[in-house]
Amino acid sequence: MKKSKKTVSIMILTFIGTAVFAEDIPTYELNKITVQAEEQQADAVIEVSSANIGAAKTIPDLLRNTAGIQVQARANAGGNEDLTVKLRGHDSRHYTVLVDGVPQSMSGVMGGGYVNWNAIPLNMVDKIEIIKGAKSAAYGQTDGGVINIITKKNFINGGDVELTTGSNGRRQYTLNYGIQKDTFGFAMYANKSTEDAYLRNSDYNNQQIGLNFHYNINKTNQLKFNIDHEELNRGLVIANIPGTPGYNNSYPITLTGDTFASSNGTPGDGSYSKIYRNNYNISWDSQRSAGTDTITYWRNDEKQREYSLLSTGILAFDRYNVTDQSSGLLYTGSHIINKKHTLGYGIDYKMLRYGYGWYNSNNTNSSALYPSQKTDTLGMYVEDTWILGKRWQGNAGLRYDQMKGNRDDSRATQIGSMNDQSFSPKLNFSFKNNKSTTTTFSVNRIWRAPSMAEFYWHYMNTWGFAAGNNLKPEKGWGYEASVDHQFNKKIHTKAILYYQNINNYINFAHTYPFNCYNINHATLWGLELENTYHLTPYSSIFLNYTNQHTEKDGVNPNDKIGLSNELDYRPHHTISLGYQFDRYNWHVRYDMTFTSNQSATLFFPSTKPLNAKVINIGSYLIHNVSITKDLNKNESINISLYNIFDKNYCEIYGYPMEGRFYTATFTQKF
């Protein structure tokens, strides 16, 4: 009954907007429907050069102000695996991350969809395009949508250097350089970032270099090759509780710490993980008179060193996990049939793999390291974007997805096989009510197969209540309606309602006891408001609001990991208010973010699931400011102050966030 009422409400809003604003107009704006992040207008586009001038931020920092996105981090410890960035209430196992259109996991398929956001230097990003929901036929295996990170391509015979210093020993050095010679182009970037531990033992050191080549075969064909290498060293967060052995009052009280998978003993000071990552991709782009074709091959090659010292100082183990050896082939194309119809189509094939690990020392108390499982996914789609009249535009798509899973080593006797497939129709309409107002409506089928981590723990958890049950893909429907209105030259607003009902929702947290099973369904719905007001030609403010709700039904009463009636760490209200000023040689950015109270289970992920209890994190309001001065056309300096009022808060229970801190950045272009 609840489902039908919410669905009807969305439909009523759409048709009310259609009736109220209908007027005759001579033309129709073609770019109002979102179907592909790379080719058409996305739900949200963040232009990094204007949103972040000179400040040393990360991509999650920049995403915080976007309606429909929530960031949940741990001070300078950085990522929180699948939970760092949530898109419409979904963690990263439930949405797709792309870099220049190429699928990314960037921290190994063993952990599911864990995205290492620090692996993407913000100063190399041109813009971020976001599709919310599963309305695009071009992208499969997603409930929450798509985040497509577009890197800079315009370093033509020049580049820049950035030097950053800041609180807590922050240091960052970046170099970008590119040249273009006739038909050949080359660009490179290098980045080194270090930071002292804020939470106990959580020091950070990241080094990265990337090379991009392109060759113009002729006026319509281009070859591109990209390679990215990273070495990321991060100390494990160690619990820091007064009265316990090793407590250090130089660090904040931290109620829990990190652990390594498949190991005995709790890591102590000096324990760390170091990621060695290489990403490669090569692509061919072709422009036809009536369309385009792009073929891309990509490969990830990643291993992770895990060095675990016990609290006594004794070495527990020193080992290497080969966390990602995945590869894939991607084809996308388009064809203009006539003035009213444009076809889009594509194939996406992924082989998700990881490799054999080894121990440098002390492996007697830990399990062997071999690739237990492998999965192959295949997606194909076709869609038609057509103009129905002066006011109407439609987009109808059909997507086919298949997932095959099996063991990848004869010793993985517990791993079973899985083979499932589905067709997913997508239907989107846009109506130009008048010259100032556009209404859109979307209905789409949702289908998501289990991630590698979910597939693995479904079979490997033989001690839990979920053992022996068949794991099914998630299936459901999503609905969305929006009204976009330009009041005048200064004021713009957009309101979006969305609703998703997902059957066979996979209930899983990547922590002991690793129960992974289907529940009856999960429901996610909410309201997003985006507002912009241009005060003067050189200053503006924005105000974004998200109202978000989640429900779960069918959670096993013996499952103590996560809330039983809703998803953990999903605040009902988030508000972002910002001010931008650009005049003469000055650039000012101020933002204020409010997050309402939220519930979770104690130590979620919980180290003591049988003793778990529901906790509440209070609301918090954080203020940040950034000021940039252009010294001349090639030099600038930036000062940024974060958490201006030194707010004491946490985004994950037990992990306090930093108080007031600063960064200072000098940029030299050449």
UniProtKB/TrEMBL annotation:
InterPro entries the UniProt entry points to: Beta-barrel_TonB, Beta-barrel_TonB_sf, Plug_dom, Plug_dom_sf, TonB-dep_rcpt-like
UniProt cross-references to Pfam families, sorted A to Z: Plug, TonB_dep_Rec_b-barrel
Residue ranges annotated for the TonB-dependent receptor plug domain, each copy included: 48-144
Membrane-protein topology: Multi-pass membrane protein
Entry's localization field: Cell outer membrane
Keywords: Cell outer membrane, Membrane, Receptor, Signal, TonB box, Transmembrane, Transmembrane beta strand, Transport
CDD domains hit by this protein: ligand_gated_channel (cd01347)
GO annotation, biological process: siderophore transmembrane transport
Signal sequence, start to end: 1-22
GO terms of molecular function: siderophore uptake transmembrane transporter activity
Family under the similarity heading: Belongs to the TonB-dependent receptor family.
PANTHER family named among the record's database cross-references: HEMOGLOBIN AND HEMOGLOBIN-HAPTOGLOBIN-BINDING PROTEIN 1-RELATED, TONB-DEPENDENT OUTER MEMBRANE RECEPTOR
Protein name per the record: Outer membrane receptor for ferrienterochelin and colicins
